[in-house]
Amino acid sequence: MLNGHEMKTGPSKTYSIAIDGPTGAGKSTLAREIAKRLGCTYIDTGAMYRAIGLYVLRKNILSDDVEKIISLLPEIRLSITHEGDGQHIFLNGEDVSHEIRTAEASIYASNVSKIPEVRAFLLDTQRQLAEHSNAVMDGRDIGTVVLPNADVKIFLTATPEVRASRRYKEMKEKGMDITYDSVLEDLIWRDRNDSTRSTAPLKQAEDAVLLDTTELTFEESVQKALDIIYGRLGTLSPPSAG
Ligand code: DC
């Protein structure tokens, strides 16, 4: 029993929950909270693209220099740990969890993520991470490419204006010097960049449930997501019950 819901399978079967959606839809905050409530692992795949973007940025290579970026991939080792405060990502042994969050790293992440070789470089790791434990994984192509057989798929969205204003507030609270217009502009640019690329573009999987949070509070969004999850998993056993 979990929050009054019966779940269905025995402890040996693992489940995966895919959450995709555009920039600023609140995927990571929601996915982290859901993982906490279900007692399973949260995997943030955007952090992996960001770490590669950061590596390219630090090397002073333009994010559209595809050949050069591909040639750097063998130098890159990524590892992930899960600690009390969430996922940490290590780039060649260095914890870059904070540094990957800058506006510049976001642009680099979006650009390197268009390169098929970069996506292929990360694919196995992402699949393996979800294979051995119950997981909530968020990104852009989780339900369509990474985990096409995920037990639950949610496509999380909200209007660009609402996403931008939430992100603006968040950045302001962190003391960042930013304007609402620049946040909105960056978000629209990334939406376009991520959804128009030829390999694994951002799009809703056919069997994903659309969750539009434009009019919802965070707690309402969490409740709706949990309803979708319990609705799909039926009586699947929660990991902690195993
Ligand atoms: O979720 P995020 O903003 O941290 O992701 C950063 C970039 O990485 C995003 O602009 C697109 C890319 N990305 C991707 O292409 N596929 C994923 N599964 C996750 C992120």
Explained architecture:
- With 242 residues, the chain is an alpha/beta fold.
- It has one domain (14-234): P-loop containing nucleotide triphosphate hydrolases (Rossmann fold, 3-Layer(aba) Sandwich).
- Helices cover 45% and strands 16% of the residues.
- It contains nine helices and eight strands.
- It has helices spanning 27-38, 46-58, 66-72, 103-112, 116-131, 142-146, 160-173, 180-196, 218-233; strands at residues 16-20, 41-44, 78-83, 86-91, 94-95, 135-139, 152-157, 209-212.
- Strands 2-6-1-7-8 form a five-stranded parallel sheet, sandwiched between helices.
- Helix 2 packs across helix 4 (103-112).
- The longest helix has 17 residues, at 180-196.
- The protein starts with 15 loop residues before the first strand and ends in a 9-residue tail after the last helix.
